[in-house]
């Protein structure tokens, strides 16, 4: 195990979650509003993508990639016992992420090819660092994380290739979604029952979450198969059938985690609710190939899970009590409302644009509340030293 050396650089660059969670929160507060301006024709960009592709790409490979990086760069040192990536290397990675966002928006005078290199180079660097840390740390148990990260990088490359060949993305959109959803069922399936168990043992003795067993492995396999079939042939009856099977298994998996018994703990409840949007979204994809299922997954599952994880991880790793404040709880409720509004009401409203703007504003308010509350924590020293839960 590598000795822990005292870090003397900027607090923002002391741990992976600090710059990347801050970037993710800030970017999320502006990106959806920019998208709505593009959608109604009041804003244009000169980047490599049409507005719809920009929106999809930036929510997956912009916002979500920052959250994934912050989570992995914080979790891997705990897995391996090695020093975290910090200081100028971490700052350089953050700047590369920013350069990707600017180049994709056309704010940097780069060609299509150079934009692709800058943007995809970020995920390539993250993949290389994650692979190095796990191999050098001989943490073989978590080597499975490398595969979805590698697929996420490949899907970003495919995104550019499809746009270059066809003018818009197709399979790469779905592959990017599929990888993130699989990461939710993989990592969420580890942290949600673990956190719930720890809290229930101390606060509500009784039935505990079922330990991971062969049923969980079946759930992972079902999700992988269903998502890959959806990527390749979303309209095929077999793809729809596997999505229904996967959704059913993951609903059952969630029930095994005793979420109702932990409902008084808002931080835990956020995780359980966010995970519930995954099987719900898979089920909607099976019965309705419109964007409703994608927004249930994008806002409810991906948005909800990433927001819940960022809040909890930030509290734990900055020495704060693991208890939600009123504004953080309100932010999560508003985000779930945004998922419902965007997915359900837009198809029945007499004025869809008003519903779209309502969903966008709800999303922005939710992330704005979180940014105002926990944003300063990334810049300041921890109030107390304690082991994160």
TrEMBL record:
Top-rank taxon, per record: Bacteria
Record carries keyword Transmembrane:
yes
Parts of the chain that traverse the membrane: 20-40, 60-80, 87-104, 110-131, 143-163, 175-193, 267-287, 293-314, 326-349, 355-379
Q: Which InterPro entries match?
A: NnrS
Which terms are listed as keywords in the entry? Membrane, Transmembrane, Transmembrane helix
Record's PROSITE patterns?
Answer: PROKAR_LIPOPROTEIN
Kindly give the Pfam families that the UniProt entry links to this protein: NnrS
Name this protein carries in UniProt: Short-chain dehydrogenase
Q: What species does this protein belong to?
A: Parasedimentitalea denitrificans
| Upper classification of the organism | Bacteria, Pseudomonadati, Pseudomonadota, Alphaproteobacteria, Rhodobacterales
């Amino acid at each position: 195990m590598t000795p822990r050396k005292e870090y003397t650089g900027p607090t923002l660059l002391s741990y992976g979650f600090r710059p990347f969670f801050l970037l993710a929160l800030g970017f999320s507060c502006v990106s959806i509003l920019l998208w709505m301006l593009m959608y109604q024709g009041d804003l244009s960009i000169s980047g490599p993508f049409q507005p719809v592709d920009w929106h999809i790409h930036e929510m997956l490979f912009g916002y979500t990639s920052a959250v994934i990086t912050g989570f992995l760069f914080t979790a891997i040192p705990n897995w391996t016992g090695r020093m975290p990536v910090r200081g100028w290397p971490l700052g350089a990675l953050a700047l590369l992420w920013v350069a990707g966002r600017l180049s994709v928006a056309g704010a940097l005078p780069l060609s299509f090819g150079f934009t692709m290199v800058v943007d995809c180079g970020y995920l390539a660097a993250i993949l290389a660092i994650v692979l190095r840390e796990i191999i050098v740390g001989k943490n073989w148990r978590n080597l499975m994380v490398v595969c979805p990260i590698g697929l996420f990088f490949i899907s970003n490359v495919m995104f550019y290739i499809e746009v270059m060949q066809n003018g818009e993305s197709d399979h790469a959109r779905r592959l990017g979604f599929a990888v993130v959803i699989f990461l939710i069922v993989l990592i969420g399936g580890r942290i949600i029952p673990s956190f719930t168990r720890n809290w229930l043992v101390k606060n509500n003795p009784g039935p505990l979450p079922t330990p991971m067993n062969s049923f969980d492995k079946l759930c992972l396999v079902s999700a992988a198969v269903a998502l890959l079939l959806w990527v390749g042939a979303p309209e095929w009856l077999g793809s729809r059938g596997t999505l229904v099977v996967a959704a059913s298994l993951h609903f059952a998996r969630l029930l095994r985690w005793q979420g109702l018994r932990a409902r008084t703990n808002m931080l835990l409840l956020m995780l359980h609710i966010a995970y519930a949007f995954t099987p719900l979204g898979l089920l909607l994809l099976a019965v309705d190939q419109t964007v409703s299922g994608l927004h249930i997954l994008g806002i409810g599952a991906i948005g909800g899970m990433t927001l819940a994880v960022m809040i909890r991880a930030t509290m734990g790793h900055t020495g704060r009590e693991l208890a939600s404040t009123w504004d953080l709880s309100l932010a999560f409720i508003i985000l779930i409302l945004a998922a419902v509004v965007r997915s359900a009401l837009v198809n029945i409203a007499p004025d869809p644009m008003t519903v779209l703007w309502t969903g966008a504003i709800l999303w922005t308010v939710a992330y704005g509340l979180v940014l105002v509350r926990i944003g300063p924590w990334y810049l300041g020293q921890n109030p107390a030293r304690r082991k994160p839960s």
